[in-house]
Design brief:
- The protein is mainly alpha-helical.
- It folds into two domains: 76 residues, Arc Repressor Mutant, subunit A (Orthogonal Bundle), CATH 1.10.10.10; 40 residues, no CATH class.
- A two-stranded antiparallel sheet has the order 1-2.
- Strand 1 and strand 2 form a beta hairpin.
- The chain starts with 12 loop residues before the first helix and ends in a 51-residue tail after the last helix.
């Protein structure tokens, strides 16, 4: 099997994120962790993924400090997987993917899950990038700028 090429030297933040959480299983593990899943067997049942693949993705997520293990909260000898602070900061990304999927991947009236605000009981409002005045930004209103670039020495 060919070795996985890492994108850790990329200057693009999107490429680096894709390197860490961009594969299907890793992202779905993170989703399930947000939904309260903690045990290997629960992840496996939820995802239907082979044990070796699940083990690999869990180890990668731990190496990236997205997940950590702790003793099981029920006092058994098992370990639980929990989101770290870095992992919890992925919440807006998971919500954005969920909302994009709700808008574009389901037919009108087709059943799907909804993310609900526990306080209000209402669906979480649509997330969109905003400028400093709180107005929604469209793609054409933004540009990518490189940071930390030093001038090349004149020859």
């Amino acid at each position: 099997m060919p070795r996985r090429t890492t994108l850790s030297s990329e200057t693009c933040p999107v490429a680096r994120c894709a390197d860490v959480i961009g594969d299907r299983w890793s992202l779905l593990i993170v989703r399930d962790a947000f939904d309260g899943m903690r045990r290997f067997g629960d992840f496996q049942r939820s995802l239907g993924v082979a044990r070796n693949i699940l083990s690999d993705r869990l180890h990668r997520l731990m190496a990236a400090d997205i997940l950590a293990t702790r003793p099981a909260s029920d006092g058994t000898a098992y370990q639980e997987y929990v989101l770290t602070a870095k992992g919890e900061s992925l919440f807006p990304i998971v919500v954005a993917l969920r909302q994009w999927g709700e808008r574009h991947l389901f037919e009108h009236g087709e059943r799907h899950s909804l993310l609900i605000d526990k306080h209000t009981g209402k669906p979480v409002p649509f997330m969109a990038p905003q400028n400093g005045e709180g107005q929604t930004l469209e793609p054409g209103q933004t540009e990518v700028q490189k940071t930390g670039i030093t001038e090349m020495k004149k020859r």
